[in-house]
Every structure is written in structure tokens, then in C-alpha cells.
Amino acid sequence: CSPRREESHTEPFGVFLGLQTAKLWHEVEARYGRSVRTERPPELAANAEAVVTDDGTPVIRIRESVAPTEVRIAHELLHLLMVSEGFAYSIEPRFSSGSVTPENLALFRRTAEVVHNGVLHWMFYPKLRSMGMNPSEEFSGQLAEAFFVRATAVDRMTEQDLALNFFKALVEIDDPEIAERLAAHYVASGWQRPLDTGRAMAESVTN
After folding, report:
1. Helices (H), the chain
2. What is the value of pTM for the model shown?
3. pLDDT of residue 150
């Protein structure tokens, strides 16, 4: 069956929007010349996503099992604004079919997703923070859970995962203490190479 659609524009997903977020909502609708459509699909690869349909309709989807919040809505609105300004929503590989294995394709897509989103988030997270929101709160909690609360989860991480997590921490989280604590944990665990890789990737974005 098709995802259940939410129709209220004053309180999308049942969430009351503050003045600045409501302004973002109307700005997106003005850019696209269409109302923002909201959906609550039962299955979604991420907790939330923003897409533009073939007919140019901007859509925000939040997985049915995930609580909608103003920061989540504002986050996806900013993704839609950046797409309207010409930024790519995602990066797809352009390899000849004979040179690609399923493993290489999965590796590329995972890396491209984290790096591409990391760059976009580094660009618009200051806007969310200026609106009094903490856009990196969820990821900060995930890091703490993975590395300091249930450290066994780290055992399943590849060197690539470790590098991407450190990169994401540096470009998305504005609390230097978290990055310092994570770096110390990497050094103590013998993960110097992914630490250096993640730091070099972040510096290529922020410097």
C-alpha cells in the first residue's frame, strides 16, 4: 500500500513549527511552486529523507516508527532548498559495468553518501544552530552508544566505517570535546590510520 500522507501545512506531521521553520517551509514551496508533500512510510532506509518527484513536487518522508521533530523537518527543508539551488541530492557512480563488483559498488555508495551529506550538513547546520536547534544531537548520541556505551558494536566496523565516523564527527558536531574524546579513543584502540584518514577528509571540507 502507498505511504500514509500528512496534509496539514501549519503543523506538518502534527508538529507545530516555529516562525523560522515555518518561513523555511514557505520558502521551499515558493522555490518549487508546489506544496511540500509529507509522507510516513513504514519502511525507509534512513529515519527521514527529502526527495523531489518527477513532476517537481518536494516531498519530506519520515519513517513511521520515528518521532517527527521540528529539527528533523527543518533539516529536510534545508536539503530541499539546496537541491533547488543546484546542489546534487545524491552522487551515483559512473563506472563501466565490467569494472564494478557488488562489493565495490556498495563501498562507493556508502562513502559517497556519508561524504556528500557531511559536506551539505557542514554548510547548513550553522543555520539550524542559529535557529536554536541542535542538528547533530542524534548523531552524537549514536556515536556515544557505539563507541562508549556498547563498545562491542565497534567490533563489526571496518576501517572504512571508522574513518567515515570520525569524518562525520568532525564536520557535523560543533562540540570539540566530543571530537577530542573520540580521537583519544581511536588512539587508545590502535585505530591511527582511520583516525588520520577521517581527519584529512574533514580538513579537505573545512579548510
Report:
1. 19-32, 70-84, 102-130, 137-144, 159-172, 176-188, 192-206
2. 0.86
3. 65
